[in-house]
Amino acid sequence: MFVNDICVGILRKCNWNCKYCIVSNRNEKIDEDAIFEELYPIRNKLKYLWISGGEPGLLSEQFWSKLVDSIDFNLKICTNGTFIINGLYDKFRVRINQLAIHSVSELTQDIHPKVLELVRKRIPNITINIVVHKYNVSYVKDFLTKYNDIIFTINFTDETFDRSNVPDYEYVIDREAALILVNQLSSLPNYQTYLNYVVRSLMNKNYDNLNPWSPKNFDPSLK
Fold first, then answer.
1. Taking a C-beta distance cutoff of 8 angstroms, is the pair 30, 62 a contact?
2. How far apart are CA 213 and CA 218, in angstroms?
3. β-bridge mates for residue 74, sequence order
4. Which pTM was predicted?
C-alpha cells in the first residue's frame, strides 16, 4: 500500500514551555535509534512524511543524515524554529518539502533573528504561525503589526492543545472571543487565518459536533 503522507510526532521533548501545549513540561529522554527504527519500515511507502514533536530540531544532525539517506520520500517539518537555528534546515533543505514554524512561545516575545531571516525570504512552502489562547488575545494585534511584512497563520487553541496538561482547559479560547478577534484583525494588511477544523468549529455554534476532539465527545459528564 502507498500513502501520500502521514504526520508523526517522533518525540515528546521540547525546549519551549508553552503552557497551552500538550507536550509542555515534558522532558523525556530522546532515543534516536528507537525513533529511526520506527520510521524505517515506511521508508518506501510514502510521498511525504510530516514530522513534529515535541521539537524535531532537538534531534542530532547524525540522526537526520541517517534518516535522509535511508528514505525514498521528502519531509515536512513542524518546528518552533530550533530546526532552523541549529542549522538543520540549511543542511537538509533539498529533502524538505514544507516547513511549518511556530514563531514564539508567547506574543510578548521576539521572533528569533535566524527564523525571521528565513521567513522574510518568502520561500514557497514555508509558513509561520502564532497560537492564540485565552490569555494572549490582547497582544495579537500589536504582534502582527510589529511584523507587518510577514503573513502569519493564526491558530486558536481548543481542547486538542492542552487536554492532558492544563486543568479545566483554562487556555482554551471561547467562540465569542475568537469571533471578536477575527473581526478586529480583518482590516490588517497580510492578515490570514488558517481555517482548519479548530477555527471552523470555533466559528460555529455547533462546536462540539464539529470538533471530534471535544472532551464532551469522550466524557458524558461534560454534556
1. no
2. 8
3. 48
4. 0.79
CA 54-198-24 angle, to 5 degrees, is 25
Strands 126-132 and 152-156: parallel
CA distance 6 to 51: 9
pLDDT single digits (tens) 24-47: 656 677 888 888 888 878 777 777
Residue that the C-alpha cell 471561547 belongs to: 174
b/e per residue 147-157 (b: at least 16 CB within 10 A): beeeebbbbbb
β-pairing verdict for 152-156 and 96-102:
unpaired
CB 11 within 8 A of CB 35: yes
Cα 119 to chain centroid, rounded: 15
Residue type, 8: V
Spatial separation of the C-alpha atoms in residues 109 and 148, rounded to whole Å: 15
Structural element, H or E, at residue 129: strand 126-132
**pLDDT below 50 — which residues of the chain?**
162-164, 194-198, 200, 207-223
The single-letter code of the amino acid at 21 is: C
Cell of residue 110, nine digits: 521576539
pLDDT for the residue 220: 42
CA atoms of 51 and 10, how far apart (whole Å): 7
Task: Give the DSSP H/E element, type plus range, for residue 98.
Answer: strand 96-102
Quote the pLDDT of residue 143.
92
Q: What pLDDT was estimated at residue 126?
A: 93
Residue 12: predicted pLDDT: 81
